[in-house]
Automatic annotation (TrEMBL), chain A:
Family: Belongs to the ELP6 family.
Oligomer and partners: Component of the elongator complex which consists of ELP1, ELP2, ELP3, ELP4, ELP5 and ELP6.
Annotated localization: Cytoplasm; Nucleus
Any single GO CC term annotated in Swiss-Prot or TrEMBL for this entry: elongator holoenzyme complex
GO annotation, biological process: autophagosome maturation; cellular response to stress; homeostasis of number of retina cells; inflammasome-mediated signaling pathway; locomotory behavior; motor behavior; neuromuscular process controlling balance; neuron apoptotic process
Family annotation (InterPro entries): ELP6, P-loop_NTPase
Recorded metabolic or biological pathway in which this protein acts: tRNA modification; 5-methoxycarbonylmethyl-2-thiouridine-tRNA biosynthesis
Keywords carried by this UniProt record: Cytoplasm, Nucleus, tRNA processing
Protein name: Elongator complex protein 6
Signal peptide: none
TrEMBL record, chain B:
Gene3D superfamilies, per database record: P-loop containing nucleotide triphosphate hydrolases
Family: Belongs to the ELP4 family.
Gene label: ELP4
Organism: Oryctolagus cuniculus (Rabbit)
Cellular component annotations (GO), alphabetically ordered: cytoplasm; elongator holoenzyme complex; transcription elongation factor complex
Protein name: Elongator complex protein 4
Amino acid sequence: MKGMHLPDIRMLLQGASPRSSEMFPELNNLLNTTPDKAEQGKLTLLCDARTDGSFLVHHFLSFYLKANCKVCFVALLQSFSHYNIVAQKLGVSLAAARERGQLVFLEGLKSSVDVFFQAQEDPHPLQFLREASAGNLQPLYEFVREALTPADNGAAAWRCPVLLVDDLSVLLSLGMGAVAVLDFVHYCRATVCCELKGNMVALVHDSGDAEDEENNTLLIGLSHQSHLILRTEGLATGFCKDVHGQLRILWRRPSQSTARRDRSLTFQYKIQDKNVSFFARGMSPAIL
Amino acid sequence: MAAVATCGAGAGGTESMAAATSKSNVTSFQRRGPRARGTDSGGPRLVSIAGTRPSVRNGQLLVSTGLPALDQLLGGGLAVGTVLLVEEDKYSIYSPLLFKYFLAEGIINGHTLLVASAKEDPADILQELPAPLLDDSCKKEFDEDVCNKKPESDIKMKIAWRYQLSPKMEVGPVTSSRFGHYYDVSKRIPRELIETSKWHGFFLPEKMSSADKVECCSLTPGYMKLLHFIQNIIYEEGFDGSNPQKKQRNILRIGIQSLGLPLWGDDVCCSENCDSSHSLSKFLYILRGLLRTSLSACIITMPTHLIQNKAIIARVTNLSDTVVALESFVGSERETNPLYKDYHGLIHIRQIPRLNNLICDESDVKDLAFKLKRKLFTIEPVLST
């Protein structure tokens, strides 16, 4: 692979300590990006197999908030306080961001209880929970669109809109078909990435050999649309205290023909209290 | 952290919870135990909820599972607001024990119980709970507690007479301020303890007979009724902190036995392509939503060995917080394996939640076996040569 920018392996081996508790600076280096020069119009797919890839969600959430973007976070898996407490370790306050209008937070667990036990007057983004048969995710899309479309006063308060979803596999568990979820992603991409020139980041679990066909359909469909895929995997050899897993980064060009091979990098990582450190395979500081 | 948020003071550690509890009408008299909690020296003693303790790692409020060995493997205990899913062993011999330990621990700590089952009457389940093992120093306290706890307590207090004038408050049967107790499965829990404890039962055959109108939804009717039942208890008894009139300073322990059995009306255990394939996962999601917004903890046992569709098991695991699987040696080839001759089965910690944190307390030891010996359930690492 010619002309590829290799991050400085030496710097990785030294285990660069974070300048401040700001997301994961090592991951920023690997992705060759900083909050100041965040790209636009991109779909990033986060995928985890045999491990928990939620640290990537926390990274992107704090990254885009630091980048002064308007973020709509569809948080289906955990409560607001969970994300907030972790974000504070990474130097961002979700509560403050929500208050100043930078963050629109849909707390799935709490909202599901509201919509399930009480009939709502207006269509609720999680309206499908009350429906008998599999519906579609249009109310959820409308919610996202309304959250990220800038107000009519014209003044651009924020840099660019970002949609973050944790995670799409939950929608399948709640009765949505893979096609409905792919439709939702398509509509969101059209609005957020193309029309509003923003970004979209979504997490999907890779169920591996669990033969979850719907999930596989969703994963493959999204992989083809993504510009960047970050795939975390548990180690094939099993649990290790010093190496929590392997991260594969794949840069893609979904719209153009693949005359040039997509480039990819693979690293191993260890998650710590406020940071994630990355190292080349087999180069964990613990064994050197 | 949901548990703290419901106490009204917003995100933070246990300080806000303590501040909220100190202004309830509780006397400042605090039993001096060997592990007295709260601030020490100076100032009024903080009243914490019996049977809970904050996690060392992130201040999350924990309750004991009733099995101290399991508490240790889970990083100190089960977090309030989360689900513990127990994958049943093949003939359902040992998973009912974990279920009962959890409930018994609730009774000892004075927690409110909610027991749901499709095959056994909750009253019968409670009768069969194991008796707590108390060492001698605590036994005397325990006897006194049982006597003092009679509802018709116009017993004149001779020594602490001044406290007779203060408003009567419900004292839970806290026998010791220890977190997590040991139980003797060969003895039954004393009847008085059950009678003075607060519990709600959900026995599916009884609930289904009433012709309530259940709104059409993709959930099986049994799951719908159970969710409404749980939500009702949480709301009515103030476990979600929504009603300022009913300030609840107690934990609700929910136990759901053998979820997913055909008795619940679910066919997830019957065939691979089941019609109601989303019913179970939807139930779990909404249940977790209820738990996250209330002071409750839930144990669910599930016969996953009967579920043929592996995708459903994966989804159920992702929607649960802590997942523990029991594998008994009965009837398997491991029964004759000399490595396992001292044990009754293996226990797999499949998943531990990362709550308010990037990392979680995973145990280094992954090969764990359990045995039920001399009335005690113990978990040990498998010693392999």
